[in-house]
Design brief:
elongated; Lipopolysaccharide biosynthesis regulator YciM; mainly alpha; about 375 residues; 3-stranded antiparallel sheet
Length: about 375
Amino acid sequence: MLIKLKNRHAAEPHRHDYVFEGIQKALRLDSEDKYAYLALGQLLRERGELEQAIKIHKTLQVGAQQDIFLHALLELTKDYKAAGLLDRAKDSLNEYLQLKDSVEGYALMLEVSILLREYEAVVQAYRKLGKLTGENYQYEISLFYYLLYEQTQDKGHLTLAYKQYNKNFFANLAYARDLRGRPEKGINYLDTALEAPHAVGSMVYPLLEGAYYEYLGKKGIRERFQRRIATFGFEISTVQHYSHFLYSSGYKQDAFDLLEEVIERGTHSVHIYRMLAMLHQQEGNSEDAARIFIQRYPQEGESFRCSQCGFVSRHYELLCSSCKSIGAMDEQFAHFDMLSISHTAPEVPFGKIFPLHRDQQQPSNDN
């Protein structure tokens, strides 16, 4: 279960007016109504009047009973977060959590810690949430241990990421990369990465076709592409990489058949049409290539799009830069360069969109 890290109190202007009138009415009836002032502070924050919201929530803490004090402290944390004063938000939240364990408090700690890139604190917040709610956050904890590994390059964090959730795509891919010189040991990690529902093709397929090419041979690579398609269907990235692999390995007709089958099934992906047009162009069929480009000309340039907020990025992000949702970046397409083809696919760091290169060879019967 992912906690969606977004502002739950976003409201339309007309709602602001309606709520403000209600608060004014409550304060006319009782000018000492602390809860009305709490609501007023929340409304001011929603309207962007952060200085006034902070002033109200600070004032409410003076000599207040614990219930009001805790409410005001939590709202002050939200004010600081909205104002970008993240260190102050963290301090206020730590003070709040020392006095009260609450789901809302630790959910807010997740948001603040993620924005501060303090992933150790994120892990601890998830552990606390697990105890309070009974939910299992192993997957999320594993992902943040992996982010800690990326941040620190400490292999201990990679080990923890794998132990926490041994199906973690990123941890398995990291081990597969580390063991590429010993493919007989690394292949199990690579296969686990290929079985992940959210596998990022532009990361895993070049490793499959590059460092593991000699060990697996064409037959082994084909089997893994086919297994992926049998399990998850015709994903755009998988179809692109597989069709390119087939073509550059000498199985040209199979490459055309694959792309045409996907189109016949009703895909509207401009990237599948683009790949088919490029293969026709490579074969010298300029008229067919032009026809396909005209039929479905690509107009979008994004590589990854967040399924939660729609944010677009050229590079894969485990944590969306916009809404901070975990693992929500969906792969749109990967770039291919059909003009220059060499034997081995180059290895490129995580998060990059890279071209595939391979010599055109005739299929052999021994692999």
